[in-house]
Amino acid sequence: MNVGKGLTRVDGRAKVTGSAKYSAEYALPRLTYAVMITSTRPNGTVAAIDKKAAMAAPGVLAVLTHENAPRVKNKVSPGDRVLPILQDNLVRYDRQPIAVVVADSFERATYAATLVRAKYASAGPARLRFADASETVTPARPGLQAKRGDADAAFAAAPVKVDNRYTIPTEHHNPMEPHATTAAWDGDMLTVYDATQGVSRVQGRLATTFDLPTQNVRVIAKYIGGGFGSKGTPWAHVILAAMAAKVVQRPVKLALTRPQMWSSVGYRPRLEQRVALAADASGALQAQIHEVTMQTAQFDDFIEGSAGQTTMLYTSPTLRTSHVAKRLDVATPTFMRAPGESSGTFALESAMDELAYALRIDPIALRLRNYAETDPETGNPWSSKSLRECYTLGAEKFGWADRPAQPRAMRKGNDLIGMGMATAVYPANRSAASASATMHADGSVLVQSGAVDIGTGSYTIFRQIAADAVGSAYERTVFDLGDSSMPHSPGSGGSTTAASVGSAVKAVGLVLRDELIALAVADAASPLHGRASSAIEAADGRLFVRDQATVGETFAAILARQSVPTLSAAADSAPGPEQKQYAMYSFGAQFAEVRVDADLGTVRLSRMLGVFGAGKILNAKTGRSQFLGGMVWGASMALHEATRYDERNGRIMNANLGEYLVPVNADIPAAIEALWIDEIDPHVNLVGAKGIGEIGITGAAAAIANAVFHATGKRVRDLPISPEKLIG
Amino acid sequence: MRPFAYATTTDRKAASATLVQDPHARFIAGGTNVLDLMKDDVEGPSVLVDINALPYHAIERTVKGIRIGALARMNDVADHPDVKALAPAVSSALAQSASAQLRNMASIGGNIMQRTRCAYFRDVATSCNKRSPGSGCTAIGGENRQHAVLGTSDHCICTNASDFAVAFLALDGVVQTIGANGVARTIPAGHFHVLPNPDPAIETVLHAGEMIVALDIPASAVARNSTYLKVRDRASYQFALVSAAAGLTLEGGTIREARLALGGVAPVPWRASAAEAMLVGHAPSRKLFEAAAKTALVGAVGRGKNDFKIALAQRAIVRALATVGGVA
After folding, report:
1. What is the pLDDT of residue A122?
2. Which of B41, B143, B319 is most worth mutating to test chain A (most A CB atoms within 10 A of its CB)?
3. Are A498 and A489 in contact (CB under 8 A)?
4. Which of residues 127-146 of B touch A (CB under 8 A)?
5. Global pTM value
């Protein structure tokens, strides 16, 4: 069996040697270069754009503005976003795309862009504070306004309670690979190389926008340098690249600059969360109240569901959650790694820590006291849950028993030392997906699905699944993805790709194998002739009789006798009734140890440990990387990340990786580890995997914040935890 | 980036003459600063005169101390055994600067010429008196967590970004230059940078075409017992929130000489002379250091988001002095 092994990622060599081609690296013949220009005002209109000087600059082919850009369809269904694609002169936020310069070289386009002058007519002062919102939106989406009993009354009556506000600033994803689109038209056929998490979604949006049949658009994404949600939906630059290519009648490449990664590709919205928890003297929760307020755009409706996990993580007789969004002069937020659970667990798991101190109960004991044996909201059984084992193993490996209960009890030199923990949780979702498989005359196998490997290891795990399902040798099995002409796959997001596409890959592999078995048992020349299909097994590219392995032959030998010596299959896999019968989640326990300089307030991580129960781990090596990457993201959220708006004019003032802080290697301790519980989940999907791209971040920021409290006795509820919040 | 010409030179005189004739011409050595500014459209030089072929790369032990050629690279200076032994604060300041890649590229002369990281200076969509005199300082009242609390004016509250320059100042470094007219100048570090009052666009005392050729660090007991403390959110690759370079010599239990300079708090590397004077003649103690730290921040003005720097700088001073003063 290949599934589960820590096989090295198949794309690793191509990536480290530079042969992996990313979307900005297709040197198409007659390629031209587009540079986006963004607004420097938060609202109002573009009164005029002077492009004379730019048009006169060497090599310039076109300057697109709202005045001359081709008219296209923008948002046509509720699921689309409104994109700033030069269809009107409205300025909706600072750094909104307002023009595109196309030239015969990147340098010339960049220079010409500096010559374009926009004049603005202002609509009024920037609206950046929640208090200045033009509208407060209360979304109706199911689950966002949950209610169980009378939580406010129960809270008022309970003997022990905590009630606090937690804030998270705007955070921008910043994958290593900035977004880039290369677009080429051939008549009314459009081919696009795009840094996207989902080729089908981009294909659909481009077809709608340019009023083309879907099959006229082909989207290719063979390698992606990280997405984290920011490449989950098509953004303005994708449309603008295709639009520019149409105008100049040559292929166009539009690659965002790093500062433009703060302009138009989404972010996690600034959030304020009130969490009120009440318990009886034994620590049993009596009430949970989780109110979420966040920023959203004037022109779109993205909501981060940060209180979602609060409805299902702990038992509580009463509960109330709410979400509201404040419309501000900002770009639209979007999914950012564990949208909801990452921000929500920071607030909820900080509050649980505060409650543990109020009760004088160990934080793990408090969580076990309120352990949910079934889904508290639906009453459904869990498809599988190993959270108790995660707490136990984590506590043992981390040395939790040695932790003094009192804060500020450990010191070494100038450093105050603290240990914290938190619960991790993420839903195990899946979508319908399809795959195709071909067996060649030599017995080698090609499996395809239009999925995208955003750097997580999809190429590798699907090859492992395919090889095991068909019974072909791993070395003679190829898995390919990243092309909208392949069978449909959902976008790579929500930790669903392994479950969704993995199930389709396994299904198609089994179909292919069964087709081959049918050929063999019906073939008089085969040693397997006349055997029951159910008695045949496949392994290492060979069919044989179970319990009698010498009776059999290779895939190639079987195919050689066929008139057409190849075999193909297709399969779809979709979620079924189990979705309503079981509650499906991954769980985990996060542990962190910090050292806080007692005088200077600097926080350094000394240890991190995550223990997860997340179904079948398909590849031990890439799986561990996923968990660790998530934990590092949690560290970044806790200690570093903050998009800093100038609230007077709505302009982001740290749109670069020098001043938008993320951890460097020196910030991540050598003592960081991810472990998992071997979990067999027969209900969740065909491959038993729950998806692990996001659970690693959940709980991590709270574990660190809780460790900082344990070290210092200071509770920081406003991220990031920076020195000025600790030296006061 | 605007179009520009690029020229290499082996002739210092000709290089300087180019800058005198063309006020938009600039020297380039490592380029780690000027290229950034060009990409951000903050600077648009007509010509970059590459001076890397000039003979100013050596790091030498001299009778008086260490002479660092202006073109020596930051990492080479940081790792040099004489620098480590004679001026540990300088070595440490450099090692904590930027990233390894930048330190391998950036020259030491360029380091003390580097321009502020003020986000408003670097964003041409905003007003800045340094970029465009008279347009106003947007950092005042804005996102000013990184900004200065000492030596500011209503024209400018930026900070000088160099770590090296702080240690260099504390250890009484001297900048050696040759003017376009061929005349050599010796400029003490304390006179090299200029406060942004009245004109934030003027940052140093250098004249057009004047070239830094070497930086001298005098050897002394106080330089040998020096340290550089840099406080920042993350462990590497970040400009200082605050920093302190400190050196002390002790004789018979009392402080004989004291050196103290601060970074991240002022538009120029900031020498805390009054605090130094307070220390001399007294026995090192936490109390004494705290009093000196308080003196060093007299007159500091917070602008909102950087208010914390006033307290944080004092704590950094105490820690740095305690480190070289042997006080736990």
Report:
1. 83
2. B143
3. no
4. 138, 141-143, 145-146
5. 0.98
